Amino acid sequence: MRGLKGTLSEAELHLLRSRMTGGLRAKAARGELRLTLPAGLDYDDDDHVIITADEAVREAITCVFRRFDQLGSARQVVVSLRADGLRLPRRDIRTGKITWAQANYPAVHGILIHPGYAGAFAYGRSKTGQHLDVSVTAVTQHRR
After folding, report:
1. Residues 64-107 pLDDT 10s
2. Ordered DSSP codes for 12-72
3. How far, CA to CA in Å, does 17 sit from each of 2, 129, 139?
4. Contact, 143 vs 126, CB < 8 A?
5. Is the separation of the CB atoms in 80 and 102 below 8 Å?
6. Residue 110 and residue 99: Cα distance in Å, rounded?
7. How far apart, in Å, are the Cα atoms of 31 and each of 47, 60, 74?
8. Cα–Cα–Cα angle for 52, 63, 111, nearest 5°?
9. pTM tops 0.70, yes or no
10. Nearest-angstrom CA–CA distance, 28 and 22
11. Other Cβ atoms within 10 Å of 128 Cβ, number
12. Category of 96 on φ-ψ map: left (φ > 0), alpha (ψ -120 to 50) or beta
């Protein structure tokens, strides 16, 4: 059981988190929120999202979509890329640099479902909530 100070601390943390989330949503609504872009997309000098100038990265991303169009499933795209020995570009979240790695299902699926490649800006697509289960333990649930 928490005392009065503990309860007030919890309430303050909740208030701070809601203010931070509100600020992010307001920036997103104004189009000023800069997120880490996937491989193949970059920001220009005016903070507009553009297709990268790197020909190899553009070709690799285009190849994934082309093969998905031909084969019809992300799994088959992975099998096809691996059979041909093709590697996929990935952006390191910490450094922002492009690295190349062997194709795997999460990478191909991530490319295929990312709204940025369709020219859409998306923020706040998932929601995290907590509730108590039958045994009265806190369960965190992520919903898209």
Report:
1. 999 999 999 999 999 999 999 999 999 988 888 999 999 999 99
2. HHHHHHHHHHHHHHHHHHHT----PPPTTEEE-TTS-EEE-S-HHHHHHHHHHHHHHHHH-
3. 20, 13, 19
4. yes
5. no
6. 16
7. 10, 28, 31
8. 70
9. no
10. 10
11. 8
12. left
Q: pLDDT tens digits, residue range 17-68?
A: 889 888 888 887 887 777 778 898 888 888 788 888 899 999 999 999 999 9
Q: How many residues are present in the chain?
A: 144
Tokens, residue 53: 């100038």
Please count the other Cβ atoms lying within 10 Å of the Cβ belonging to residue 115.
12
Is the Cβ–Cβ distance between 86 and 60 less than 8 Å?
yes
Gap between the Cα atoms of 9 and 19, Å rounded = 15
Tokens of 33: 């929120």
Angle at 124 between CA 113 and CA 38, to 5 degrees: 40
- From residue 46, give the alpha-carbon distance in Å to each of 26, 34, 49, 51, 74: 20, 12, 9, 14, 34
